[in-house]
């Protein structure tokens, strides 16, 4: 298929309809297209007949399609035919790192969190023998679904014809440059990149982040230097791979959605961006009526003085009476006990301290659960129990919030190892709104044996699923019956799960 024959409206593989030409360079054209079967937007690369690296690009895309880390762009299809060749991948919406720093450097912890996520994702790609080699601010995206996405692993290098003898070191340096950009708003290169100006220099070397931006923590300055500024290392060893960069940033907070705790009297706030999924207005508490002070009408100074003295006398008598009653009560209590604290009788009700607080009980296992027995995405299920807010599990991608009308729900099944009483389950979901979640408990890992104990609509962020009545069972299911929108599709995400059981006194 010649370049002139590939126009808006062209259908590839009787499925992907090209809509908008996004960019074109050196015989490769990027399109926004529609997958007509799944009714979702996709990104499609097509190639002119004289594009020299079609085989390399298609081969790289097929290899990248086997990557399962959700932080890496998903490749859906790739074909190399005599008439035409193409690569179909995920259409990602959100803000690139260049967009995020357009107004100035990011908060240091946020910049580090974004790059830490990218480093972990690339470490997974390297384990599969795939590399990026051309990391730029446009390749790191904070999506509209509040997740990190790294674009173009393997494919972009093939498109550009990039090769290297040290891919791990090159990608570690690329991550260091992204961290530098996030911390300073500059690009550590000789020319501007993605709208970012070149980093300032001193004595022929790039300035370190702390020399450019005030307030950068020293440890982040050191990580950046070790990753991409060899002239400034001064004895520091280099970070030689994405895995080493990820380890160096393992302790930073991750950019995950967290519910906002508003102060007791917040101002009226209305969301300004529909893409954030916040369309409601937060109103301050209704003001309380003013306190009505008791006043005594006065009929001249003499009469007022008499009334005031009378009121004072009554108040004094009341205070004396109250003190007397209190003393009599205390004395009676002491007399009853005869000086023995244990002789005060049996209380009529248990004191609050007699009931222990609910205890966290760690499940033995977590797996993806699908009522139809389909192979629902299971990778990452165990990560919901690791106590790390940066790791997560998510369902397969669906075409509608109702799971494409294919099934009534999907979820994460927890095996507690033995029957336990459930006080509540605290689950950290994505910040995307629109999820409907049920909590089911039972003694067998079958949908018919699991009883719904509570439901929550519009769930997002950290949610507490508390049974409406006492619930006991070996299996606990967090069950999505409706999925939030994310990156052109619909899927549920769970970062962390904590199960609480009533403690014993």
UniProtKB/TrEMBL annotation:
Disordered: annotated segments: 259-300, 338-362
Keywords associated with the record: Kinase, Membrane, Serine/threonine-protein kinase, Transferase, Transmembrane, Transmembrane helix
Domain of life: Bacteria
Stretches with biased composition (Low complexity): 343-360
Keyword Translocase tagged: no
GO molecular function terms noted in the UniProt entry: protein serine/threonine kinase activity
Family matches, as SUPFAM superfamilies: Galactose-binding domain-like, Protein kinase-like (PK-like)
Parts of the chain that traverse the membrane: 310-330
InterPro entries with a match to the protein in the record: Galactose-bd-like_sf, Kinase-like_dom_sf
Protein name: Serine/threonine protein kinase
